[in-house]
Amino acid sequence: MLHLRPATRADVPLLLSLIRELATYERDPDSVVASEEGLLRDGFGERPLYQATIAEWSGTPVGFAFWFFAYSTWRGQPTLYLEDLFIRPDARGRGIGKEMMRHLARTALDTGCGRFVWQVLDWNEPSIRFYESLGAKVVHEWLTCRLDGEALQALAGR
């Protein structure tokens, strides 16, 4: 019933749709500015910047994982960084998220990663409980810092 597969160029419209569904779930639907052109360029060009895994249930797309490799200076090893994981609400409770996480953990180990890292919104208690049930440690000591928009332009001197 469950099939996990790498996203293809043809999946870009589906990926954008799932990204928008995720943004709605995360209470910020108006913040998505990604485009099909950008996703196509950045994920399926000469030097892909991300990878995506599609979850299908009985042939129907029900979720995705959007991920890439980073590097841990302290460990001296690559890190698999999960940018987003989303399972459509009507498909939850079937173990799809757990299988997706298991697949990504295997991918991390198979590619020599010393870590598998992601973030979760502090209000998202169902996801926090889910991740902890997998053995994940929520690291409260680290805070995310982000520059975008005008602040990014200003720091860059533009």
Molecular structure report:
The chain is of the alpha+beta class and 158 residues long. It is built from five helices and five strands, in the order E-H-H-E-E-E-H-E-H-H. The protein has helices at residues 12-25, 36-44, 96-110, 125-133, 149-155, and strands at residues 2-6, 51-57, 60-72, 77-87, 115-118. Helix 3 (96-110) links the parallel strand 4 and strand 5 (115-118). The relative contact order is 0.13.
Brief description of this entry?
The protein has one domain (2-155): Aminopeptidase (3-Layer(aba) Sandwich), CATH 3.40.630. The chain has 5 helices and 5 strands.
Strands in their spatial order, largest beta sheet: 1-2-3-4-5
**Rg, nearest Å:** 16 Å
CATH H-level homologous superfamily name: Gcn5-related N-acetyltransferase (GNAT)
Counting structural domains, the number is 1
Strand content: 25-35%
List the helices and strands and how they pair.
Blueprint: E1 2-6, H1 12-25, H2 36-44, E2 51-57, E3 60-72, E4 77-87, H3 96-110, E5 115-118, H4 125-133, H5 149-155
Parallel strand pairs: 4-5
Antiparallel strand pairs: 1-2, 2-3, 3-4
